[in-house]
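Bug #77: duplicate submission created two jobs. Keeping one. Sequence:
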Amino acid sequence: MDTIPNRKYFAEAMVATEKEAELMSENLAWMPENIIDAHAHCNLPEHVIEISPEVYHHPISTFPSFTLEDSYETIGSLYPGKKVSTLRFANAWKGIDHKAANDYLVCKNRSGDVVALYGIPTEEGYTTEMLASGKFVALKCYPAFLSPPAQKIYQYFTPVILRQAERMGIPIILHLPGMITDCVDDLKNLLNDFPDLTVVLAHLGLPLVPVPGLARAYAEIAKYGRVSMDTSIVPSADVMEIAISEFGQDRIIYGSDEPLNLIRAQAYEHPSLGQRFATEYPYHWVCPEERAQY
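Kept job's structure:
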């Protein structure tokens, strides 16, 4: 973590460019007075145990830690004059002390905000006990917590954990193990096995840009009325339009993916590497050759 200048990234992100300031001013005019952000990450520096090479070279490592104070400062900068209520959970990769991060958020979160439990698939007892505690309003498990990363939903959202969430009426925040277009059958299996489980698909099912078969996949899953999606880290208006067309606006939930919403980048489709972020700013995870080309 010492090699990642996350405090520098944060300080520079807090200074808006002229264009950003204009966009923020325009957006504030039509934003509601009360905003719910259903997808934000938060944990302390001491909760970061390890950053693997895979994580280091991924945009998620831009802010290994992001405190509640950082979050409040960001909200004040991006939504001045608005009341923002936030659902938070820890950074998702395995090298985080998720138990300590869960405790931190429960104990220190300000009134009006809520916490999703970061569930640990290899510790079903801990996860089901925490769900039963009544301290958490949702459950998040992550495929890359496992090594190698999970390829199927039940590998990281185990049936034991899902039964507890379903029994208690606690929704799950589901980061799919792959693009939604490749996970339709796996997802339908989950929804059929757990008919009373409420599911929020994170990141609109993971497309950064429109991909073949996206509308068809959305239409298949939209048949299940207890499935919604959040907008976190999706920069494409075209993807958003497809999602709203198939699910309806009442089942699309705003999620900022804070602090990743502070990254200045453009999504694009690389001819061999797939969906990527291009950025003028030299973040530590940016490949210099790719940056020069794109």
